[in-house]
Automatic annotation (TrEMBL):
<dbReference type="Pfam" id="PF00561">
    <property type="entry name" value="Abhydrolase_1"/>
</dbReference>
<dbReference type="GO" id="GO:0016787">
    <property type="term" value="F:hydrolase activity"/>
</dbReference>
<feature type="domain" description="AB hydrolase-1">
    <location>
        <begin position="21"/>
        <end position="261"/>
    </location>
</feature>
<dbReference type="InterPro" id="IPR000073">
    <property type="entry name" value="AB_hydrolase_1"/>
</dbReference>
<dbReference type="InterPro" id="IPR029058">
    <property type="entry name" value="AB_hydrolase_fold"/>
</dbReference>
<keyword id="KW-0378">Hydrolase</keyword>
<protein>
    <submittedName>
        <fullName>Alpha/beta fold hydrolase</fullName>
    </submittedName>
</protein>
Length: 280
């Protein structure tokens, strides 16, 4: 764990499914566990016996506690503690997208006994330089006058974002408490990290060399063909940490692979989790 980082208390989760292997889903920056609901319901199946899915709100997101500073290692420890509290001794298939994908990778490296299988969605174990791609979103969220909002429709009208999907995704973080509004996401923490430019911890990947052994379990690395988050030159670093990795590129999908191609992702997860189902 990064020096000085504080692991939040057990994280908020949502459960989908009643039987089968344990599967945990970790969302991306500004997301929430429930963003994976459609995929989790499909994986669990109509009678809920296909998988017992746990949709996790990462620290600083949704209804989970906030951190005093950002640390991927602390995020992974918080997820590990939460999963162990749900089912002590269980081994999980862990699915993580973007920020959640980096957290899932650290989880497998730091707690290999907990992770039976790993699915990393459209992210690589590398630095992405900075949070420039999110800076505009963060600035617009900070500009929203929380003290004078009349209702959610007023917030939507004042929020300047042309893409309706992005607007809805970001505004899911807006919550009303009585007569006041607040951001559920730890906007101050993310804003401060973005202001560091190339010093961003969220955009970075922690140096694990010499500290953690490679994860020897099966790993599925899912990429969107239209996404720029994974490049051919990322494969050696991925193989060094995860020797049993195999890659799946989803045609026509952007960074939001599970949103653009949910049926493809669900089928890939079904096949990947099957060995765990056969063992149960």
């Amino acid at each position: 764990m990064t020096a000085g980082a504080v692991t939040p208390a057990p994280l908020n989760t949502l459960s989908v499914g009643t039987g089968g292997p344990r599967v945990a889903f970790l969302h991306g920056l500004f997301g929430q566990g429930r963003n994976w609901t459609q995929v989790a319901k499909a994986l669990a199946g109509p009678d809920g016996s296909g998988a017992r899915c746990t949709l996790v709100d990462l620290p600083d997101h949704g209804r989970s506690p906030w951190s005093t500073e950002f640390s991927f290692s602390a995020y992974a420890d918080a997820v590990a503690a939460t999963l162990r509290s749900i089912d002590p001794g269980a081994r999980w298939m862990v699915v993580g997208h973007s920020l959640g994908g980096k957290t899932a990778m650290l989880l497998a490296l730091q707690h290999p006994d907990l992770v039976a299988r790993l699915v990393v969605v459209d992210i690589a174990p590398k630095s992405y330089g900075s949070l420039d791609r999110f800076s505009g979103y963060i600035a617009e969220m900070e500009r929203l006058p929380l003290g004078s909002l009349a209702n959610r429709a007023d917030a939507e009208a004042r929020f300047d974002e042309p893409d309706p999907g992005v607007k809805a995704f970001l505004l899911q973080n807006l919550r009303r408490d009585g007569d006041s509004w607040r951001w559920q996401a730890n906007l101050g923490l993310f804003s401060a990290d973005a202001a560091k430019g190339t010093g961003s911890l969220i955009a970075d990947w922690p140096d694990t060399a010499g500290d953690l052994a490679p994860y020897e379990g099966p790993v599925l690395w899912v990429a969107g063909s239209e996404s720029a988050y994974i490049a051919d030159e990322d494969l050696p670093a991925m193989q060094a940490l995860f020797p049993k990795v195999r890659q799946l590129t989803v045609k026509g999908a952007s960074h939001w692979v599970h949103t653009d191609a949910p049926d493809v992702v669900v089928e890939a997860l079904r096949r990947f989790v099957r060995p765990l189902a056969d063992q149960s």
